Every structure is written in C-alpha cells, then in structure tokens.
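Continuing the series of single-chain predictions for the mutant panel. This is the parent chain; the variants come on the following pages.
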Amino acid sequence: MALLKGKFFYKEKSEQIEKEFNLLKENLYYSQHLAQIGSWTHDIVRDEIFLSDEIYDILDCSREDFDGELKKYYSFIHPDDLNEVKDATHGALTGKEYDIEYRIITKKGKVKYVHEKTKALYDEEQQPVKMTGILTDITNFKLVEKNLEELGQNYIQAQQIAGVGSWKYNVLTNQLFWSEELFNIHGIKSFSDFEKDLNAYLNTYVHSEDKENVENSIRKCLEGKPYEIEYRIYQNNGMLRYLLGKGKPIFNDQNQITGILGTVQDITEKKKLQEKIDKIQKRFEVLVQEASDVFEIISSDGTIQYISEASERVIGYKPEERIGKKIFDFYQGEQRQKATEMFNRALNNPEEKILEDLVFNKKNGGSIYLSVYMQNLIHDPVIEGIVVNIRDISKRVKMEQRLAYLSTHDEMTGLPNNMCFIEELTLQCNKAKDSYTKFALFMLDIDGLKNVNYNLGYDLGNELIIEIANRLKSYRKMDLFISRYFEDHFAIILRNDKTKKEYEAIAKDIIDILTRPYKMKNYEVDISVNIGICIYPEGGRDAETLQKHAKVTLLRAKKEGKNTYKVYSSDLDIQNFKDFTLRNDLRYAIEKNQLRVYYQPIIALKTNEILAAEALIRWEHPDWGLVPSDEFIAIAEETGLIIDIGKWVLRIACEDYKEWINNGYPDIKLSVNFSAIQFMENDFVKGIKGIIDELQLNGDFLVIEITESVLIKNSDHVISSIKNLQSMGMQVAIDDFGAGFSSLQYLSDFPADIIKLDCSFLKKIPHDERSMAIARVVANLSKELNIKLVAEGIENEGQLLFLKKNSYYAGQGFIYSPAIPKEEFVKILAKRKCKPIIAQETFDEIREERRKYFRVKFRQLLECDLTISEIKGKKINVGNTKALVKNISSGGLCFIGNVRFPVGKEMLLQFSTKLLGNEIKVMGYPVWIKSTEQDLHEYGVEFLINDSDRADLTQIINEMEILLNKNVIYFDGSFIENSAVEYFEEIIRTNKTI
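Parent structure:
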C-alpha cells in the first residue's frame, strides 16, 4: 500500500512539475516578446546554435529564411558594421565575450539598431564549451537619442538668439561651467583664457560697485535661496555691459546644496533705452490722473506740493484740501507717529524705498487701510521732492484677516484649530519654563457623534458639535484655551497653576457639563466623554511631548470606560504605548501598503475537504511586526477607518479568489468579516455587488461574516441589507456565536446560513463538562434549525474528536492550519484536503535543542519590570510593564507577558528584577513566541550582554541551582504565589480601580 501511495505521489509531483515548466516556458516567451529581447546559445563543441522565437521577430523572418548558421546571419548585417560583428563572433569561438551595438537590415528592408551581449560557459578544464547571448532591438532608443542630440543643438542656437547664457557652479570643486553664449556675453574669444574659479570671475569681470551684491546673492543661494539681480561687468575689451543674473541652488538626494544653476542675459541695450524713457516719463508717471492710486509729491518739510485727482475718490479729500498742508497732519495717534517716522526715514535715506501700511481716517467718517510708498527724489531735477504713492488696500486687509482667522480657527465652532492649538501650547511651555510654573493640557474625546451622523444625519451632527463647543466656552472657572483640533476631539489648555486634585476636579466638571442630554429638534441625544490630562513639566517640557503623553493618557481613560479621565504618569505601560502607536499609524497603513490578507482554511470535519477560506486581515507594522486584527480593528471602527479597510480587504480577497479560479484551484467558499459600522455606510450592498460584478464573479462564492452585535445595532436596516446580499446568492455566517449577546430571537427573526461557535467554548473541552454541554446544545440547535455549524479555534485532538462525535459540520483552527499568506494557502488548496496535525514534535522540545547555556527553571514565577529600550536602534522612553520569568540562563530567559512583541532584532527589551538579593538588569531580543491562555504570550529572549555581566549572572544562576537542589522552599527574590493568569487578571482589576 505504501508503494502504491508513493507511485501516486510521484505521478502527481511529475504532473505538477510539467505544468510549472510549461508555465515558465510560456512566461519566458512572452517576457522576451514584450521586451523585444531574443536569446541564443552556441554549443561550441557540437557547433550547434539554438535561437529563441524573438530572434526571428527582430530579423522579420521565419525559421525557413534563417536556419541559424552564422554565415547566413552575416547577410542581415549592415555593410558598414559587418567587419566589427565578424571580429566579435570569431573571438567568441575561443570564449571571448563581447558587448556591441550595430545595425541590421531585415528581410523587409527595414534598418534596425540592435544590442548584442554574450556570456561564455566553461568546462572543468576552463575550456569554452558554450556561448550564450541576448539580442535586443534598440531602434526606438536610438531614434530618441538622435532627437536629443538635435534638441541639444537647437538649445545652443536658442541661447544665441535670446542673448542668454547659462552656467553651473560646483561647490565641491569650486569650478564654473559656462555655455558658449556666456563666453560671447563676456567677450571671451578663447575658452583657455577663462579660469574656472568663482572668485577669479568676480575679481576679473564684475564691476567693483556691484561685486558685494553679487557675492551676497551667491552666498544666500548657497544657503538655499534663489536670486535675481542686475549687475555690471567689464568685457575683455573694457566695454561696460549690464546683465540680468538669475540663480537657484542645486540639491542632492540628501537635500544638501551641491552647487548653483544660473542664467545670465545681456540687458545693456534695454537698460540704456529705459534710462532715456525714465528721464522723459518720470514726472508724468507720478501725475497719472485716472489711476486708482493717489500720487503725491511732498517737500523736505513734509508739505504736500502736488496730489493727483484720485485723492477725493480714494481718501475723501479734494486735492486743494490737502495741498500746502503737512502730510502727517491727516493721521492720528499711533498712525501719525508711524507716518512721521516713515517720512523721516525717506528724508534721511535717499536710496531707500519705504513701504508701510497705515490706517487713515476719512473726511466723512470711517477708516480705511492704506498702502503708503515713499521714495526720496529731492535731488532729482525732474521731481525735486519725496514721491508718495497711496493705495486703498482695505479689501485686501479684510480678506487677509479673514483668511488668517480661518487658518487658525475651526469655521463651524469658532474655536482655535489644531495649528493654533500647537502655537498656544508651545507658547505656554515657554512661559512656564521662564516662570517655573505649571499648567495642564486636557485632551477630550467625544463618543457618540458618529452614531448621530449615521442615524440622524450630518446636519444634526454639526449642531451637536456646535452645542458641545458652546458648553465648553461657557465654563469660565479659570483661564482656558479651548481648541477643536480634530472632528470629535477637543483640546483645553488650563493656563493657571493648580494642584493635581484641582485639575481632576475641573475634569469632573467638564465631563458633567458635556454629558448632560442634548435636546435637538425632536431628539434627545446623549454622548460620553473621556479626558487625558498631562501636567507641565512632569508630563513633558515641550509641546510635542505633552501632546503625545496626553493622547496616551486619553487612550488609557477610554479603555477604562465612558466618562472617565486619567492623569499622565511616567509609568504608563508598554501596551498603552503600543496602542497609541497603532492608533497614530493606522490611518497610513493602506497608503504605505502595510496591510496583508491571510487565509485560514475551513475544513469538513468528516472528510478533511477544504470547504472555504476565511480572509483575515493582518498589519505588517514597521516596528511591531505582524499585528493581528484584534489589536487594531477596534481602533479602525472608532476612527471610521474601518470603511476603507473593509473595502480594501473585500477587493483583495475577491481578486485572490478570482486568481484561484482562473488557475484551476478548487471552487471553495470565501468568508469575509464585516463590522456594524460598515453596514451603516450608504450603498453598502451596492459596493459589495460592484466589486463582484467588476471581477465578473457570481455572488454565491462569498460568505458574509457578522457578529451578533451587528444585528443588535439598527437590526431592521442590517437585516434588510443582509437579505439583499442573500438574494444575490451569498451566505451569511454569525461569527463568535455565544461570546456576546446570544439570543434565540435573532435566529428566529434572521435566516442565518451558518453559525460559527466561538473558540472560547472549545478551550476547556474535553476536560470541562459545562463547556461540553453547551457545545452539544448548540449542535442540536443548529440541526433543528437546519443551519450549518462551524467550530472555531480547534487546537488539539481531544477537541476534534468531541466535535466529530457531536456531528459538527466543519471547523478551523491551528490543528489544521493557522491563518497564512496567500502564497502558502494555495499550496494547501491545491491538495483539496487538509488533514489535522496530531502527532508532532512539541515546541518545547524544539526550543530545548537550541539552548547553549545552562538554564535554571523556577518553581514559582519571578516578577520583573519590562520596558522597551530601543526600536530599530533608536532609543525610546516608555514606562514599565509587568512580566513573569519562567526560567533563565546566562544566554537568555523565558517570560510570560500580556503584550504581543515582534520576534526578531527590531525591538530591544529590558528586564529588571531581584534574585537572591541581587538587582538584575538585562537586555535582549525576543527570538520566539507562543500564545497561551487568556491572551497571554510566552517568549524566548536572547540576551545582549557583555562577558563581565554574563559571568556575574552565571554565578547567581549557579547559586540558585544549588538552592533548588537542596529543596530550599523560600528564595530571596520577586517571586509570586499565584499563576500567570491570576496575576495578570489582578493587574487588570487594579488598573480599573485606580
């Protein structure tokens, strides 16, 4: 029988290999065809040549036209390139490799450019036996190359026509590189006369009066600022030329400045012409009558000598009402002083152009904003005074004020927004630092707004937000800065220096104010509030740290229930830090392609046939490794990200299923989980149907998995949506049955196709009679209702035998397979069956073989403080979390914890404990993980330790082993009396009562 099985095995294996070979052959053909690359092999010993099909496509011929002989191939070579090709191919017979480009003339008379590259293969005596090569059609590339050369010539001609030269300066070599036209502009005949040095250029050509300006512009450009300046040069023949220079910095991949790229235009003729025009037009330019600006000329004592007719239209005064009077007499108070200072500056600095904004009181009342420009032209014989240009900028100023307000405030509530909040928080940090005082930051999270939006509409949701903001504004017991920094999140800065108890009392007041019912139209709405409090300086000395710690504390408050607050403490544990990190990073998970879909097979328990696959989402976090869905789905639901994530999972799962069907894999069901929030989305059913129709699939392959909580929330709407999906052939499974709000009423009202018994019922089977009794009842119930029953979380043989005995239809769990990536799942799917793994080497036995150091096993668990020292080599500051050590050696330890860490060397952990009167502090990396009961995890840690510390630790371990061998009952150390499960349950209870 074993021989017979072996024959079938090898037959199947042979067929699989042949299938994969044909696919590979097909892929190779099409990849060569698409890339226009042909390949050939010349067996030198046998003098045989083998050609791929693409060779004939490149030559535009058939196998009958060309049989692969080298002499016939020469007939395709362009005559001008034939000798070069012959030399190369003759050398190939002795193993000489070549890499050449040449032209061919195809059977159709078309000239093509090709690139040929070879590789020689040698036997054991280093004699060439084969020569293999590739032939690539590069005709299109060559045409583009010629076009670029032509464009390059046109670029040079364009510079000559425009009189514009270009240059580049290399900071590292202090060299200048000029275009041909730039030499012409400077009158340089021979390139050898030019020194490629920046200082030499400045000293040789730039006018002495302009040199400083040019140097400053170049210096600022090397600091990252582009420039545009006019300056003068002397050509080699002594002629003066006016130039317009522009430059911008060049950055490398590290955002470092490596040089300057610039242009220079000869504007000498334009400058001379402008000077002539200026002399003629200067007085007329300042006396424009129809302009919307007001033009004035005032004397050196401030008397207005001339004013344009626009005066009455813009500022309300006729010209005759202002001529002969002092300009600053028309301003009051601070604005008069500002106008006087402006005039004095213009009087004393003839070269300076002065621009200021002033507030001007109009003759008939009201004020306007003016942009006032002054320039001293007293010594200009045409003007003989100070020119003043006045423009009404009231509309612009009001618009800027409005934009400034909107940029720093939430338009709906009128509260400062996130940007303004950060500025204020930074300001308060600086003030508190200077005055050695305290202040507090409150971060508020409003829960219930999303339900209002979904059920009552966004208009009422907006009204609710406004009412919440109004209630916060009404709280006037101390100096508050209130901000709406994100949707249903608010931030409050309490500027007064108070005690912790006083801050807590304020938090209670705020919760009381905000949680009173809201009467809106015909509805009465309730919300809940959580507050995270961080006090300066204990919680941080800068805005970023304070905000981060306040958010972490808010997360901890939310975990402990509604309408709670927490004050930041440096001992906030690792799990809170992890939750905070996941919450911050989740919104970018899809964008950064970090989400993965894993598949767990669902097996027919009697036949081991694969009936379905459950699609389960995983998050490949850059720091925390592969994060399971139970650690982030709740965050996704709370933040609303579950909508986008759910759509992504459904699409990927359906695309994978489509691929399986196309590749001939078994036609199984595909099970996808949906949350209550997804059912609240508009066009939820339409969205699912759209994806299925787009992929041209029938809906009967899909199983919609929902929890009982989905039915509880808006049950009529949910049941209606589910029945629509069922009408398209989809099945519906109630997931985690019995773990939540189980109700027989739901099974009578709602026609479920499948019940999935929660894994918690299997954990104690077959050792707990109550659990087995419940499992039997569910089995009988499903049989009576004609509903298929699936058991989740099957892990051992005892559980499997019980389920089979009680007629369970199907199951899934580690005994068959964990959730695995698509690439691994299809290997199982191809076999159509998945047998349970009963007899296998235990995990402990495998680990034991890896140990290099003597290990002492404790009779009781050793308590320790665990923290994260580094993540990917970066130091971090995180509070301690409790962990329990099972055993230890000088090379590592085994511990139990309630936080899931990634396995590998990305995260360095630090352990602190007491043993035999010694303080022990060690660091190491998790190298394996094993999940245990009650969401606890067991880890193996490899120490990162120096020889001296290892020797000290070895001595302590040896002393401990001696005491154990002597059956000593009491040990001096942080040992606990109860089990790991009891220990962590007590920690949870304690945290909830803090």
